[in-house]
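Researcher: I'm preparing a figure for a lab meeting and need a structural model of a single chain. I don't have an experimental structure, so a prediction will have to do for now. The sequence is pasted below. Please return the structure as tokens so I can convert it later.
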Amino acid sequence: MKKIFLDTNVIVDLIADRKPYSKHAIEVFNKVDEKKIRLYTSSHSIATTHYLLKKYINEKQLREILYDLLDYIQVVAIDVDVIKKGLKSKHKDFEDAIQIISAYSIEKIDYIITRNTKDFRESEIPILTPEELLMKIL
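Model: Understood. Here is the structure written out token by token.
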């Protein structure tokens, strides 16, 4: 089973049903049910998703959606060590640095999945879009 770290934009695509990207995000989550992949994200992604979507989705409903999402995705905690490494990293974008460092903490992680691949060029973990991941695991 492949271990996949999801960037925030994929989670937002799923919950906000951002077309055309939500189609691939839904398919990625369906692969969890098929036991083809195991999903991970950072605690930062969950908080950021809430922050971005609270303007568009009722607070109670959004919290329920995020709570249910935790059945599909394991959350990696952002601690002071991750933050310090992110601040000292060579990555230009601090938020992306946190995501990459969080992904490194997962033993035998296979891919980071994001639509923002250009900001993850410095990652030693292979980067794919959701669509590219789906082509690899079909």
